[in-house]
Amino acid sequence: MTEPGTLHWAKSSYSNNGGSCIEWAPEHAWRTGDFLVRDSKDPHGPHLTLTADAFADLIAFAKTHG
After folding, report:
1. Residues 48, 56, 65, 43, CA torsion sign
2. Radius of gyration (Cα) for the chain, nearest Å?
3. 11, 19, 24, 59: which one has the fewest Cβ atoms less than 10 Å from its Cβ?
4. Is the model's pTM score more than 0.85?
5. Ranges of H-type helices in 1-66
């Protein structure tokens, strides 16, 4: 399995909202089904591992609450 530090991370489309944004590792999600999410301001910090349903809920929450 790929270590989180070697993954390609994609920034949220909401990243221009003043710096409060997340990144996720899409290739890892497609390969494993685990959605890795981290704070874009702390790329060497911890990350969350979410299920597909939890990731969808996070996206829905972000769209609703900006």
Report:
1. positive
2. 12
3. 19
4. no
5. 26-32, 52-65
